[in-house]
Amino acid sequence: MSVAFRRESDDEHKEPRFELPLPPGPNLVTARGLAAIGDMVERLERAVAAHGEPTDDAARAARDDDQRSLRYWRTRLATARLTAAPAEGVAGFGARVRFSLAGRERMIDIVGGDEADPAADRIAFFAPLARAMMGAEVGERVDFNGKVEAIEVLAAEPIPE
């Protein structure tokens, strides 16, 4: 029989499902970030348990997605390093920083990668803006985006819990 007439299974044509990639570098977290990761693990454990033994492809795919996410978040929980905020007046991980950039005043929280939400003014410690300010003290000007003394740190305090 010709290969052209051979029936192949549908599974042969599906894209492989890879594990969720883990971000490189340390997994620094604030107390709030650690609690959020713990909550995510608990939620996914309940979801996986609720799937039971799926009977159709859609249910099996949903279970597999939840299991994949659970493996990711368990790894993030296991590698989390709770990090204390810097002293008052110093910009760093776990700090709320008020600064001036291009004549405009802004305020951001410098947090871990899993907790970052730029729309809510929470940026990851490895973001270029956060990296530029790390270790800067109130009143200090730091270089950013190729411009000398582009950012002035106006205030820095630990993020309120």
Task: Please describe the biggest sheet, giving its number of strands, its sense, and whether it closes into a barrel.
Answer: 5 strands, mixed
Beta strand %: 15-25%
Mean model confidence by pLDDT: 89
Regions with little confidence, pLDDT below 50 for 5+ residues: none
Strand order of the largest sheet: 5-4-3-7-6
Total beta-strand segments: 7
Distance, first to last CA? 70 Å
Note the total helix count. 3
Sheet/helix structural class? alpha/beta
Helix percentage range: 25-40%
Which sequence of SSEs, written as H and E, runs from N to C? EHHEEEEHEE
What sort of overall outline do the alpha carbons produce when their principal axes are compared?
A: elongated
Q: State Rg.
A: 22 Å
What would you say this structure looks like, in words?
The model has no long low-confidence stretch (mean pLDDT 89). A five-stranded mixed β-sheet has the order 5-4-3-7-6. The chain is elongated, with a radius of gyration of 22 Å. The protein starts with 26 loop residues before the first strand and ends with a strand. It is 31% helix and 25% strand. A hairpin with a 2-residue loop joins strand 6 and strand 7 (147-158). It has helices spanning 31-51, 57-79, 128-133; strands at residues 27-29, 80-82, 95-101, 104-111, 122-124, 141-144, 147-158. The chain is α/β, with parallel strands linked by helices and 161 residues long.
